[in-house]
User: Fold these one by one.
Assistant:
Number 1:
Amino acid sequence: MEVDGLHYVQYHSSKESTYLAAIRQLISNDLSEPYSIYVYRYFLYQWGDLCFLALDREENMLGVVISKLEPHRGGPLRGYIAMLAVKKEHRGKGIATKLVCMAIDIMIERDADEIALETEVTNTAAMKLYERLGFLRSKRLHRYYLNGNSAFRFVLFVKESAYTLRLGYDDHEHEEQTNQLEMPPSA
């Protein structure tokens, strides 16, 4: 898919020799966690089709999102956005939004109940992006990263059933509670 002169492509293992070094370089420049080659291969070998790249006309990598999808603790099918990076000089152009939306769309196509991620509490641009896409902050993770920074976990509830599971009640109870809410009198 081409948008504004950029190619958005789904990762494929046949292109590992072309893309893996560039993915590692881009992510190591932007994210505070040091990831080994094994972490990248863990995601790319099992869920490469949930990972997307933004390339310019010369095939230079400008952005990447790495994701996975699997059952979470025997419950909902949870998508997970593990890594997102866009070259500094190309931020603010909608590249990250497009990459995340592509990952979300394919996870929804594959029946995800929810999609989760973590981001540093100091990364206001990322937090605004995820909130704009409908993610909710679910918890603060104190000293989550190796650099000592804390994180917020964000969750996008794709299906109402995943949301009600998290709250600890079923759809019928949710309906009853919703019906009991009263609107304040208008002034």
Number 2:
Amino acid sequence: MDYVVKERLNWSDLKPTDAAPFTDPHTTDIKILYNDWPYGIDERIVHLVVWTKFDLPDDPSTKELASDMRAQIDDYVDKTFCQAVPKENVSFKTAMLLPSSRRLTSSKVIWFKNWTALKSIHSVEHFHVMLFDPDPNLIEEVTHGDIPLSRKIG
């Protein structure tokens, strides 16, 4: 965990600074980075991880992401990565403040949060976003120029 927090995220602690998740577009409580070890999938798919200092709570009865948090993540991913698409045309709206010409349609973006049993890093909240054939400038902007560890050493 220390490597992820200190080296990848450049966070000194995991204490959230904002009152409510996903409300401040300039927050330091969220960081978007490449997945250092992406799944063996189509090379046109960019696999990002959205790290958060705040909790992404599960519903205790279902062990799945709480519905109110799912809605907040949907909205965040939509604002961050997608064009405005009517809700009725979207199965997973996933996504903040980028020129719409560089955003993707919602059909090219999906997000998910691993179940606890599948997480490789338990101590820092995060969810995954996969984008099909995105504009490299969009990725550069949302990741602030991040380079995944797999590219640095491979």
Number 3:
Amino acid sequence: MMIFALYFLASLVPCTNAFGYSLQDDYSADKFADMFSFDTEDDPTHGYVNYIDMNTAQSNGLFDTSNGKVTMRVDSTNVASGRGRDSIRVTSKTAYNHGLIVIDIAHMPGSICGTWPAFWTTGPDWPNNGEIDIIEGVNTQSGNKMTMHTGQGCSLLGKDCNADGGKQGCGTDPENSQSYGDGFNQNKGGIYALEWTSDALNIWFFARGSEPDGILGDSPDPGNWGQPTANFQGDSGCTIDDHFRDQNIVFDTTFCGDWAGNTWADDGCSSKGATCQDYVMNNPQDFAEAYWEVNALKVYSSDGSSGNSSQPSGQPSAPFPTEPSIQPTEGAFPTTFGAGSQFPEPPSPTSFGGAPPSPSEDPGFPSQENTPVITQYVDGGPVTQTTPALMVTETAMPVVMTLAPGERPPQQDWQHGSRGSPPWSGSGRRKRNARRHLMRHQKAFGDYQHT
């Protein structure tokens, strides 16, 4: 039997750098197709588009991952029919809660009449768990529009994010001509980054040549990037964690529909065709520049505060943060929760087999009041288990200990409310070892393991 356990001990010293980031997921070209699902359903925005599967896209030359880049095209050869022009829409298989998303794009769909490209994230039960539009525009638009869509009760940038039932949302006005479409492509692209915390949703755009050092490295630091291009600051008008949960990453290029179709005449496109659909149907050659070329896409989580959930796209996910759960994938490493995460109420002290030690009994050891425990057991495969824990309000620090062959970790019985005692209880060598390991491994994550 293989047992994995992770102890989180709250530090007595507040964290001074709450969001140090480390790489969580790298959507590199060789992994991209395995990490995204190709959506083939009807377009929910009523576009004139036929989303195709990966095999069809590859066969028709619309999806390519050679030369270390990901290219996603629309059909620019055939007159469209049926549902509409062939295109690609992909959704990440992993959903996220908090973190940093950084994307380097060499080319995006140009400012072409009839097009509606977007790079965005969305949660289940739209719009109640939020939508974050990082890149979006229609027709001949020259600047990027960054927008948030939510359920009722959220206002950002002084705007109602549930306007028109969430369809309109709350967003920025396009300004930078290098941030979208033709201007973006003429400058050889650029880098976008989204930082999502409990306090705010910040988006940066860096035109090619202006990106900060290390932005796609192992530990990017948004604190060195200057002011964000768009700052959606949560406050009394919108609690971020109440309105944005379980976000999947999406690329798509649709045509016409609820936005591009409805602004066809306003965007100066009516001279190209009586209707958006008629133009998109009969002019395939005009869409040769309607493609994405992605150099890199990476997702980072904050050190010691992995508020991210790895869940297959399309499956229900527990609300965040009120109902956290441990959902291991193959490999059996436990999901972790860090500073600021909300956990269920802890069991009463009587379930610990006696009251926890007081500071007077051991003044050099952190109080058990701020010491949640999360344990993951695996026996022949991954097992999902949720255990009671406390709210972590400060820096999380794990204790790493080694078990002798055949020895069971002492917290197992205590964790399940029987007569076992917490690993810091008792006296002598056991307490000294625990303190020694705490000091030695304040900044490292580890596990108990024996076979």
